[in-house]
Write a structure and sequence with these properties.
Low-confidence stretches: 1-13
CATH architecture of the largest domain: Alpha-Beta Barrel
Bound molecules: coenzyme A, magnesium ion
Structural class: alpha/beta
Number of strands: 12
CATH class of the largest domain: Alpha Beta
Number of helices: 10
Distance between the termini: 29 Å
Mean pLDDT: 93
Order of helices and strands: EEEHEHEHEHEEHHEHEHHEEH
Strand order of the largest sheet: 7-6-5-4-3-10-9-8
Length: 309
């Protein structure tokens, strides 16, 4: 059962099903990304940009943000370098005037890193005359081994926190793992643990849980299966690395007609039986968690309808 509440799935007033990474130094991919139906783009200044291209990428990303100024059709986020790198503050100085909707923060060591980034953002927001707190943060919360031991503390984190996502590649490198997947392509147990901890940490903090990338962008069937598993488990969206992945992700994280109809039946049944907390439908017991779940599905569907208009 998906436990995500309607508020928990929201990030800056919208739900993210798909967030597409676009290398910040690629004029071609930036221009291509405009027509991709992702809920958000993540303009990348970190690991998809070579060190010698970082400065040029900042300028390109800043220009892109300015060309697509607020209010935007889809949110524009920027992945900066990690706070332990001098590049991180250069990134913020280079792009904040373009008013990104949020910052994707890689390789967080603990929620303190998010608080620290929030303090930096506040200074930029003050200087630039933006509303304080308007720039949201999405940490990639499992990329360092230490990070796994403070995930529960996101509950007390900055109001800017829009969600939590996780990463398996940097974590594998950090621990010297030969692989993070088994022969069948499933996450090995250390990385399943990171995925699960991220999921529960996000729900504990009442923010969106966003699943990590599916690296094999040719394999759209495998992507669909991975999305279905993520939604089954309680993630509300997924990171994308290639435009072709976005439609698959959007569809997987949008309730189907069948789900919506069933949710309506459940809500109607409880409405028709005021004061009764346990009912039966089609021979199955339903109680309050099922009602909440049905309401969540209707809220997701309504949110999507209004987002599509
Ligand atoms: N954003 C926008 N456009 C993209 C894109 C992306 N992430 N990935 C590919 N495209 C474009 C390509 O430029 C190409 O358009 P074109 O034919 O007009 O040039 C089209 O989509 C098809 O791309 P394709 O040829 O299938 O892939 P590729 O070999 O050009 O690129 C990757 C493959 C993996 C290098 C590319 O998808 C990519 O850069 N992904 C993002 C990587 C990233 O940001 N990683 C960091 C997070 S893990
Ligand atoms: Mg990385």
């Amino acid at each position: 059962m998906q436990a995500l509440g309607p508020d928990a799935a929201e990030a800056g007033g919208m739900r993210f099903r798909s967030l597409l990474f676009v290398p910040g130094d690629s004029a071609r991919k930036l221009s291509k990304s405009v027509a991709v139906p992702a809920d958000a783009l993540i303009l990348d200044l970190e690991d998809s940009v070579a060190p010698e291209n970082k400065a040029a990428a900042r300028e390109r990303v800043a220009d892109f943000l300015s060309e697509h100024s607020q209010p935007r059709q889809k949110q524009l986020w920027v992945r900066i370098n990690s706070l332990d790198q001098p590049a991180a503050l250069k990134d913020l100085a280079g792009i904040m005037h373009g008013r990104p909707d949020g910052i994707v923060q890689p390789k967080t060591r603990s929620p303190d890193d998010v608080v620290l980034l929030g303090q930096h953002l506040e200074r930029f927001e003050k200087d630039l005359g933006f509303a304080i707190g308007s720039t949201r943060i999405l940490p990639v919360s499992t990329e360092t081994p230490a990070a796994l031991f403070s995930l529960g503390d996101y509950v007390h984190c900055d109001q800017r926190l829009a969600g939590l996502t996780w990463g398996a590649e940097d974590l594998a490198t950090a621990v010297g793992a030969l692989s993070n997947k088994d022969r069948d392509g499933n996450w090995t147990s250390p990385f399943q643990l990171a995925r699960s901890l991220c999921l529960f940490a996000a729900h504990a903090a009442e923010v969106a849980a966003i699943d990590t990338i599916y690296a094999d962008f040719f394999d759209l069937e495998g992507l669909r299966a991975s999305c279905d598993e993520a939604r089954r488990d309680g993630f509300s969206g997924k990171l994308a690395i290639h435009p072709d992945q976005v439609v698959v992700i959007n569809s997987a994280f949008t309730p189907s007609e069948e789900e919506i109809n069933q949710a309506r039946r459940i809500v109607d049944l409880f409405a028709a039986n005021p004061g009764v907390a346990a009912l039966s439908l089609d021979g199955v017991m339903l109680d309050i968690p099922h009602l909440k779940q049905a309401r969540n599905i209707l809220a997701m569907a309504a949110d999507r309808d209004s987002g599509d208009r």
